[in-house]
Amino acid sequence: MDETGAASERAPWQDRITLDPEVLVGKPVVKGTRIAVEFIIDLLAQGWTEAQILANYPGLVHEDIQACLAYASASLKAEKVYPLAV
Predict the structure, then answer these.
(1) Which long-range CB contacts under 8 A does 31-40 form with residues at least 24 apart?
(2) How confident is the model over 31-59, as a mean pLDDT?
């Protein structure tokens, strides 16, 4: 909700994830870093804990990892699959 009580149009990840063609050829990254969302998701998929990620990448905070997960979730929800005619 914003100050007026209306539902915000801004997704929770938008304050922490940025897409800039000048940074990592436009891949989504944690704002202010060159750490790609896909890299964080890959670390988690490999079994890294949040504590391990934060210890190895001290520029990151808990909210950055949550934003990466939220971005990935939003991307998957927006994906459309259309059957091909046979």
Answers:
(1) 32/59, 33/59, 33/60, 35/59, 35/60, 37/68, 37/71, 37/72, 40/64, 40/65, 40/68
(2) 97
